[in-house]
Batch of 2 targets.
Target 1
Amino acid sequence: MKKIIIDRFEGDIAVCECEDCSMINIQKSRLPKGVRVGNILLIDENENIKIDVQEELRRKEQILRMQQQIFGD
Amino acid sequence: MGSRRKSFNKKTVFLSSAIVAALIFSVIISLNFDFLPDWDSIFKNANLSVQSIEVPDDPLTVHFIDVGQGDCILIKYESCNILIDSGEKENADTVTDYLDYQGIRALDYVIATHPHSDHIGSMPDVFEEFDVHNVLIPRLTQKNVPSTKTYENLLACISASGAKASYAIVGEKYKVGEISFEILAPSEQYEDLNNMSVVIRLDFGDTSFLLTGDAQRESEEAMLKIGADLDVDVLKAGHHGSKYSNTPEFLEAVSPKLTIVSCGKNNTYGHPHDETLQRLKNAGSEILRTDLAGTIIIGSDGEKLCAVCEKY
């Protein structure tokens, strides 16, 4: 199982962050319809892709809290 | 005088290395191998790129460091050093070696324009090697905060460094000696992180720079709407020269004499887009590109500007 996070879109290309923070480019057409920046994608051996919404929300909350603590919101 | 001699010696080393490389290269060509290193990789592997550029002898220098497809800008003024973005993580050595070579130990300001990997990927290495005093980032909210480790790592570094951490607020002006920089964007919240890019106007005497990160049409329109002072001499093209940035209306207001495009050679995204290059020509701007010229340094004495490129 591979886990990647969509960092951004550059035209038709989804630029994704791998678990070791290296970046890969994936054609948007190869990803499930409606994927968005920030989505966490779980890819199994057969290239089936699942979007982990819970993990995305958990991480976003945690990271926003971290930002607010450092920057004193 | 000492540094001049040093630079001469380095040039000699550089020249002889280049001759040796050229000989090896021509032998490889004559053997007709399929895999041939290009000059870029020869220069990079020999770590010669940093030494081969001569920094103008001006009080202010703005360095557009060649980090491939990404942004990394160093502003040097007297003993003050400001770093705007750091390029991808894979270019960390390029950035830290460059700063080292410039004799930098501390960074007075680090500005992370927005949290995409091609702008903040190497920040952990920067924070590890240099003493950072102040950090500026855009204020992100629940609507646009990234879920990436790259952003989490940046925050962790800022926290561990003890640097003074502040959000970039539009209208705030920072003065260091005779230079000043002002935050012109983002004045609104956007879902697209490119539009959250911190945009900086830098002034020294009669010379000025506009550094726009990846700001796109929406942010450019907002800057026009709030009446930001956009007219400058040197523009860093928005978003590596994307056609979704650098709109004609924006370029008309900026009216740059020179535009720097920071992008990677033969990058996957087609940056800079032809439309942008045409718009810049229409706006009467000269263009310098890091994919063609390598690292580009602009020197300013407060009246005149000069440009030095790593590759001619």
Target 2
Amino acid sequence: MCSPFRSLSRLRDVLLLGGVLLAVGPGCQRSSRTLLETAPMSAKAERDRPARNPYEDNAYAMTEGQRLYEWYNCSGCHARGGGGIGPPLMAKTWRYGKEPGGIYTSIVEGRPNGMPSWRGKMPEYQVWQIVTYVQTLDADRSIASPPGPREEHMQAGEGASSR
Amino acid sequence: MRRTAWSAALLLPFTACRASYSALDTASPEATRITNLHWLILWVTGVVSLAVIAALAIALTRRRTAETRAGEGRRARAVAAAAIVSTALLLWLLTASVLAGRAVATPVGPGALRIQIVGHQWWWEVRYPADPPSDTVITANEIHVPVGRAVLLELSSTDVIHSFWVPNLNGKKDLIPGRPTRHLLRPERTGVFEGRCAEFCGYQHAHMGFVLIAEEPDRFATWLASERRPASEPIDAAARHGREVFLSSACVSCHAIRGIGAFGHKAPDLTHLASRRTIGSAMLPNTDGPLAGWIVNSQHIKPGNHMPPNLLPADDLLDLVSYLRGLR
Amino acid sequence: MSAPAWEEKERAELARTWHEREGILGRIVSVDHKTIGRRYIITAFGFFFLGGIEALLIRLQLAVPENRILNPDLYNQIFTMHGTTMMFFFAVPVMLGLGLYFVPLMVGTRNIPFPRLNAVGYWFYLFGGVYLYLQFLGNGGPDAGWFDYVPLASSQYSTGHRVDAWVQIINFTEISALIVAASIIVTVFKQRAPGMSLNRIPLFVWAMLVSMVMVIFAMPAVIFTAGSLNSDRTIGTHLFNPAEGGDLLLWQHTFWFFGHPEVYIIFLPALGIISSILSAFCRREVFGYTAMVLALVATAFLGFSLWVHHMFATGLPQIGESFFTAASLMIAIPTGVQMFCWVATIWGSRPRWEPPLLYVVAFFLLFLLGGMTGVMLASVPMDLQVHDTFFVVGHLHYVLIGGALFPVLGGLTFWFPKMTGRMLSRRLGFWSLGFLFVGFNMTFFPMHELGFHGMPRRVYTYLPDKGWNFWNLVSSIGTVLLAIGVVLFLVNVLRSLYRGARAPQNPWGAETLEWATESPPPVYNFLRLPVVASRSPLWEGKELPVVTGLALDRREVLVTGALDGAPSHREEVPGPSPWPFVASITMSVGLIGSVFNVWWLPAGFVVSIPPAVAWYFTEEKP
């Protein structure tokens, strides 16, 4: 009668430890938020551009990126990923690749055939937030930041009620 | 009237604070009606509570008596009487409350001034609709109303639930996305009243205030006419350069200034920024220093708000400020 | 005086049959209602301390204007954790614990009818709390308020796992509440002592019964509501999304339909505690038994028809709002009747001035004030001025602390001798109550004033020129006194556990059945189950008649009729088992994992089936 209980308590310890790591580990990274960003303008920062997205997988950056995508009117050309004047961002492959650094360059420098340059008009941390967001528009990928109100994938207007 | 004076006297120590921002310092018939109702409830419930406390005190301290049938009957009658009296008093308060509720929500006629208020995370968009629509006045965080005329507010929100509240004038009403609500103000004296958001809406709910100015009708008309005009021309070279800075920086992506081709509608309209008393949703006075600090790094003042820091070179900043301060 | 030989033999056999295993393993497999009830109470107070620290941090931040101790993100997490901890992890569980411990004793039975299910309830509650705090420590604590209004709590404005944690702990805490509710209701209806007809049940038991019936109706509502938010956040439904046909007010309605009865679920057992204390200390039955019971039932009924008073500012039709004003005012009547009956109980008696009685007096004073402000809030125009301001914070703490915490502390003081066999220190009791009372009023009374002067709730700081500085500072200083009172109470408990005077079986001379057995009660509660002939069995003046013939070699309880307590048959109840613990772990892992990946939920469910089967089919042989 003793031995099954002994392995049971060990199993319990492992499960609890696993639960702890599950809860705390990814929670830290995904849920962290910095409210007081330093904000070099993207012009100056380009030279010291970090190689990777500092907000990778951060949930707050995703929703901030979603908001900025609207506010800077990215949807004016790209809709909600369906594209229009600009190429669709829901597509599997992008003309200039999906690496975070490449997306950053597209936004800051602009691209031929109509993508404007945002250098000097957008602080660097906001560029990275938009990068984080547009990476979630992949049609194949499950939505990392679950859908908010409407028009996540539709080529629609502002967000007024559909009724 | 006398009752109000009595109760006001009792609460005198509390009014040592700034009396202009208080539900008890009324500036409209609605607020007065509500405050009177408050005194009624306070007195009625206060008397009942004191009676119960007195009965408890007596019960705890009086000497022990033997239990008799008659005593039991007396207690039963006392409890029943207390229950009946309390019910009657509550019915009285219910009636008073319903009547007051109807009085403060009387529908307004077509002569009311319509103002549309749109709540955003952490600032207030204020629109005075007009006919033709090109005459619509759009401003932010400061509402002007004429005294002696009903004002009908049409409230809505673009993001989360906010709540509009000017304690001196009336109760509050929520701004609910997808569900417009209406609210009524009838200021009966001039003054500068403070308002704020009263529904938790995120990081800067604490600093989502606004200013409501009730003024004489002709002053209001003058103000409205001035707001209708497009932005003032810059008066000197520095201001002209400031306008260039505005149009070439991130500012123009979100802020609108009518007349110079800036159409951003995600942030407060700045066309007549200098005519407003405060900035940052009634957080700071609208003067050079705070304005410069706000532009450079509003995140230090109001962390989490949606305006990014703008690390402009010093003379660009000064010119921008001098341009903005000229937008009367 | 030594007991006769047959009694010793019976005692030994009962001890062997109802034996609880020793050590950590024993604690895991225990199904004794007293052990589980005590666990609920101790764990609830653990969360109370955590919630209290959060409160101290809040008041520290608000002590002076423009304070920078907490940034808005952390502040939002802390006040949400404070509300969630106090409401879900302290206030309801402490009442559940007191009920689990004392209801079977008061009705004269050996154990609750579903011992293993109850064990699961406790583990669920504990695991939910641990998960919430682990996530809080990982900077992922929920931050949209304990009420999580949408759209602020939707995935767009509250992104990440923070609000998901809140959603999950609803499942944990409310399922455990439902489990306890089922146990207590069945205990009260089917396992009373012979002769204990419905009109002889102690008032505390009535209060617990009515409260648990409210749980049955209210908790499923919040589980549904939280589940709806969960599905909006994780799988893309639009129940609360107005742009796609959903409705934001739906959230408020369904949440407050639970939220308002929740406070009565907390409040009703407190009323029962007051009755127990008063009858013992005035040495008299509580006056107006029938009126008291009807008042409890009326409060429960009316409690379900008040919820819209949280939504008066949303622009609902006036006539609808007036109905809720009427209901919110009318609910003062049954509570008022209870208070009048208590005063009548005290009138003409000679009460003994012990700390429990003083807690009752404190309750009267604080709850009356809370009731006054409650009447103000019930009135729509009045509410529209003070809604969502510190006035409401003042009101809710007066009714929750004055109306629930003070009675709980008084009840613990009253029942401490029974639960532990030791007496609490009288002097420390007076001192802790003094600090609590003064500190509480100093903290919360100024908040009414702040509300009238325009200070809204849930703000992380305020500007210095609004005139709120003085009363905020006073309020924050008051929390220090309040904290001292809490610490003194804790010191009293800890010291008395080891050095308190030994308590006799019935130190207060009270009249209900829990005082008819030793302090602390043996695991089988009573040597022989008592038979009652009145409402106050221990005051009948003679030795209690008992039931004989129950088996001693198996765990047997007596099942009696629901209305009149006439014996019906004997029933065996299950004994200790490790499987409830295992099943609760598998289900918890499933629920917690589903925050991160939705497939953990069905996996957890499937993995829980074997322990559930083992639970049902295995029986421990003593």
